[in-house]
Specification:
This protein has about 650 residues and is mostly beta strands. Helices cover about 15% and strands about 40% of the residues. Strand 5 and strand 6 form a beta hairpin. Helix 3 runs parallel beside helix 4. It is globular. The chain starts with a strand and ends with a strand.
Length: about 650
């Protein structure tokens, strides 16, 4: 990730400090106002477009020697406006990101600073310490207070051990009380004035991930998992924590801490376009990133490795012939990878000995001939116990690894993510983290991280419903890559849903499934279904297999949290449009302007729309092609649990 500075100006007009007790910071356009009060502690209020939004928000960092933020005394302050642009190495939304904000650094007695950034649509802060020794952090306080009764959309877990695959709960902020549940980041707040607040973190390293809970007073406050110090055996996939420390982190005293950010907007569409995690992340630590190739992958787990038909004259399953068939399928549609999931190795504890029915070296050679790379699944425990495996995989010719079952975000596990990404990068391997927490900036520091799971995706079978998935673009996917594993060719409405592998189905229409490839962001996007079904639905497969994973431009066209999304994305001079909606019983109809197209060009659109009977027979769709230009409008119809997918290309 490169940062280009266009303008850095010291400014005093936007910030006023009154007797070291009050600091006011405005966003560059004046819409967002941050009022910081320095008294017995550090609190702040937030206004947005002249409306009071948040009050009595507080920040503290508790070490073994002090509580940073308690009885604070400012000894210096600096302010400036920053106007730059960022070129992300893996551009999931934009290939060029504007990064304009007003910056304030308050230096306090006691060896710490707090840095604030106020954007036109967001605010962020972080602690920076200047303590020349290792320190222990016993707690961090991030709290915000609401003025109105708000709806909170959030995943919640009964404890800190979670794969982050829970369905969203929708909570009344004033009625919500602390109930020992842990609320995961990211979290979305919906106010009565239709202002949305997305909360998450970035630049997370050597520190635990933050969770939230009710303050019991119409607000939220932070909680953190403690450092594990004694582990016990819990089987092949994980360990159990037998003992925890009293502190949440032991770390360097000279460091910056994770950014806490609030993205704020009164336009739901803007949530889909936000790039806050990227703006706040550390720059890439990799000098050479030319080998990192985002792309799609054919995946056998969801469909039970069960192709069938006249061309399948072998016993399918976890064996060499089946994987060759998957490689042939991937090659046919120019899909760059296949994933070999659990079962490719003799044991989940031994990554060096393949299953006796699999000739891994023959498959790597065969894939190379077909221009298809192989990605191998592993448990995190196997990786941690066999870190030399990355060197071995590079020698074999493996392209990437899918690492599973971390299910924790304490400091130890956060550090595991980083040392794993770093070691994998040394050996030119990309990483897909499953059983994972949300993206929090490490993917920009180590851009060989192409995706994270941490989502209630199609692996949940009948537990994956459009009524929940419609929130993903506004919450989970709004902070980074998301491995949802779309692509089901057997589509149903919920009242007739069934799913038993090998014939897995999904809830949602065919057009809905196709749209997910455009709407959802992931540097490694899996095609979850059976090659046999993709071959028999060639027009659909031709479309989804060509959808890019990186984009030059993203424009949200229509969006309403929890109800519908229609988004346009550009790669070069080709535009894709994806739409999805919830289980609303009434058909939704939209008229979409095409004014984002070049005015002097002619185009052809190829579209897939819900069919006349798709609200009952979810397999029903309409596929058509037509000529268009920038003055035209297109009509988008989405039935319940429906969708829309299209590609627009310039005519030659």
């Amino acid at each position: 990730m490169k940062r280009f500075y266009l303008l850095i100006l010291s400014i005093s007009t936007i910030i006023s400090i009154y007797a070291q007790k009050r600091v006011e910071v405005y966003s560059p356009n004046g819409d967002l106002y941050l009022n910081i009060k320095i008294d017995k502690d550090i609190t702040y209020n937030v206004d947005y477009k002249n409306k009071s939004l948040l009050q009595n928000c507080c920040m503290q960092l508790k070490t073994e020697d002090n509580i940073l933020g308690e009885n604070p005394y400012i000894i210096h302050s600096t302010q400036k406006e920053v106007n730059e642009y960022i070129i992300p190495i893996i551009p999931l939304k934009q290939s060029k990101i504007s990064n304009n904000y007003n910056k304030l650094i308050l230096k306090f007695k006691g060896g710490y600073d707090i840095e604030f950034r106020v954007y036109n649509d967001a605010l962020a802060y972080r602690f920076i310490t200047h303590i020349k020794k290792k320190i222990r952090i016993y707690d961090e306080k991030f709290s915000i207070g609401f003025i109105t009764d708000n709806t909170i959309h959030a995943q919640q877990s009964n404890n800190f051990k979670t794969s982050c695959e829970e369905a969203y709960n929708h909570l009344d902020s004033r009625k919500w009380k602390s109930d020992n549940k842990k609320t995961l980041l990211p979290l979305l707040i919906d106010t009565p004035d239709n202002i949305k607040i997305l909360i998450s973190e970035s630049d997370l390293y050597d520190y635990p991930g933050m969770f939230l809970e009710s303050s019991n007073n119409n607000g939220i406050t932070s909680i953190f998992p403690k450092v594990p110090i004694l582990f016990g055996d819990d089987g092949d996939r994980s360990v159990k924590i037998d003992k925890e420390a009293e502190y949440i982190a032991q770390t360097d005293g000279e460091r910056s801490f994770p950014w806490r950010f609030l993205f704020i907007t009164d336009k739901d569409e803007k949530i889909l376009e936000n790039t806050m995690v990227c703006k706040l992340a550390d720059k890439s630590k990799l000098s050479d990133t030319s080998w990192i190739k985002p792309g799609m992958a054919s995946w056998e787990w969801w469909n039970g490795a069960s192709p069938y038909g006249e061309d399948v004259n072998f016993t399918t399953g976890c064996n060499t012939e089946t994987y060759k068939y998957f490689i042939d399928f991937a090659s046919h549609y120019n899909i760059p990878y296949i994933i070999m999931d659990e079962g490719w190795a003799m044991s989940t504890r031994d990554p060096f000995t393949p299953n006796k029915d699999i000739d891994i070296h023959e498959l790597i050679k065969y894939g190379k001939e077909k221009n298809v790379g192989i990605v191998l699944w592993l448990t995190w425990l196997t990786v941690d116990n066999n870190i030399s495996l990355f060197k071995t995989f590079e020698e074999w010719g493996i392209k990437g690894v899918k690492i599973d079952f971390m299910d924790r975000s304490d400091q130890w596990m956060v550090n595991f993510y980083e040392r794993t990404a770093k070691e994998a990068a040394k050996h030119h391997l990309f990483v897909d983290f499953h059983g994972a927490f949300k993206p929090a900036g490490l993917e920009y520091k180590y851009p060989n991280i192409l995706s994270y799971e941490g989502v209630r995706g199609m692996e949940k079978m009948g537990g994956c419903q459009p009524n929940n998935s419609i929130y993903l673009p506004f919450i989970r996917n709004a902070v980074g890559a998301m491995d949802y594993t779309p692509g089901a060719m057997m589509s149903t409405q919920p009242e007739v849903y069934y799913s038993k592998r090998p014939n897995s189905a999904s809830v949602g229409t065919r057009a809905y499934q196709m749209a997910l490839f455009v709407v959802f962001e992931s540097g490694l996007q899996m095609l979850a279904d059976n090659p046999t079904l993709y071959y028999s639905n060639d027009e659909c497969t031709q479309f989804i297999s060509k959808v890019p994973q990186t984009w030059d431009e993203t424009r949200a066209l229509k969006a309403k949290v929890g109800e519908y999304v229609i988004i346009a994305k550009r790669k070069g001079n080709i535009w894709y449009i994806g739409g999805m909606t919830n289980n609303n019983q009434k058909q939704r109809d939209f008229e979409i302007n095409l004014d984002f197209l070049d005015k002097d060009k002619s185009y052809q659109i190829e579209s897939f729309m819900d069919g006349t009977n798709a609200s009952r027979q979810a397999m029903d769709f309409r596929h058509k092609k037509s000529d268009i230009n920038s003055n035209d409008k297109i009509n988008v119809r989405m039935v319940r649990n429906g969708g829309f997918a299209a590609v627009i290309k310039q005519k030659e």
